[in-house]
Amino acid sequence: MRTDDFDYALPDELIAQEPAAERDRCRLLVMDRATGEVEDRIFRDIVDYLRPGDLLVANETRVMPARLLGAKRGTGGAAEVFLLRECAGPEPRTNRVAFWEVLVRPGKRLKPGAGAVVDFADGAGNVVLSAEIIDWARNGQRGERVARLITPLPSLDEALHAVGHTPLPPYIKDYAGDEELYQTVYSRRESSAAAPTAGLHFTSQLIERLCDQGVGWATVELEVGLDTFRIVDEEDPEKHVIHTEFYTVPQATVDAVAAARAAGGRVIAVGTTSVRSLESAWDSAANGGAGALVPRDREATSLYILPGYRFHVVDALITNFHVPRSTLMMLVSAFSTRESVMAAYEHAVAERYRLLSFGDAMFLH
């Protein structure tokens, strides 16, 4: 197995630069995971493939307003700070002060120990948030820094929503539409730097229709990081060190999976992040060694799913089309076969599907 096995020609013009006009009117490529046979449908046709007793499990995380555009204090030069994750700092966290691991631009002018501070102003020109670059992040691989965030407003949350922007993937250029369209309709707690994009195609009405049809709905939470877009550089994918993310599988979802299994239904993951959450929560030592899904509360996972992986929880998968040579291509290939998945991608390209985060969807069953 080589990383090149998961490469494909991705025409730039097929990278969707904006969402579908209607969430559930995007295209849906349906693939039989056993035979590789494909059908071309519309996403709302998913109702034709789900049965009473099936269970959909979706990642309900919401994208943070993590992209901050401001000016370097003292020079006024343009600067960008991208929030990655909150971390411990040299002083206690308060409503107005917190420490975050961040990416910055321009990196050469925002070095720790140089007194670098970036100020962020609201629409009225008032500085409502500042970021002081105080240290290098531990185990950082992309020049991550630690920033001390401080605001004069009652809370950092208020400040972030006053000046922050929803970040978009690097391959989406100049999108100026509604940032809410990069959030799922069921999203809740802001904890991700990128959206679980397979869920973008669901509308509240479609979810209600599926529930009326007897399909269950449950949620997990996985805090999606920017490394989800990272391609694998190593020739041997097994030598790649996958990123770590935090996930939660509540007891209610564990119970819903058990109920679906008892009723003969399938567990259908909405997106690869839901797959990683459910499969990470499988405990092979539980249930007398027979294995069982167990609840998890913001635990770390570095689960790396490659072809040959045995799925313990997930029976079917709704997903978007992914970047070539990525760990997500490998995960999807593990859910069927590499040959079938690559053939499906060739079909999608030939049929001019819209690809990647704002693009069309696949259903592997």
UniProtKB/TrEMBL annotation:
Compartments reported by the entry = Cytoplasm
Source organism per UniProt: Adlercreutzia caecimuris B7
**Which SUPFAM superfamilies does this one have?**
QueA-like (SSF111337)
InterPro entries named in the record:
QueA, QueA_dom1, QueA_dom2, QueA_sf
Q: Which GO terms describe its molecular function?
A: S-adenosylmethionine:tRNA ribosyltransferase-isomerase activity
What does the UniProt record say this protein does?
Transfers and isomerizes the ribose moiety from AdoMet to the 7-aminomethyl group of 7-deazaguanine (preQ1-tRNA) to give epoxyqueuosine (oQ-tRNA).
What pathway is this protein a component of?
tRNA modification; tRNA-queuosine biosynthesis
* Membership in a protein family: Belongs to the QueA family.
GO terms under biological process: tRNA queuosine(34) biosynthetic process
Q: What is the lineage of its organism?
A: Bacteria, Bacillati, Actinomycetota, Coriobacteriia, Eggerthellales
Entry keyword Cytoplasm: yes
Instruction: Cite the record's note on assembly.
Output: Monomer.
EC assignment: 2.4.99.17
Question: Which keywords describe this protein according to UniProt?
Answer: Cytoplasm, Isomerase, Queuosine biosynthesis, S-adenosyl-L-methionine, Transferase
The protein's name: S-adenosylmethionine:tRNA ribosyltransferase-isomerase
Q: Which reaction does it catalyse?
A: 7-aminomethyl-7-carbaguanosine(34) in tRNA + S-adenosyl-L-methionine = epoxyqueuosine(34) in tRNA + adenine + L-methionine + 2 H(+)
- In terms of superkingdom, the source organism counts as Bacteria
Q: Which Pfam families match?
A: Queuosine_synth
Main localisation: cytoplasm
Gene Ontology CC annotation, any one: cytoplasm
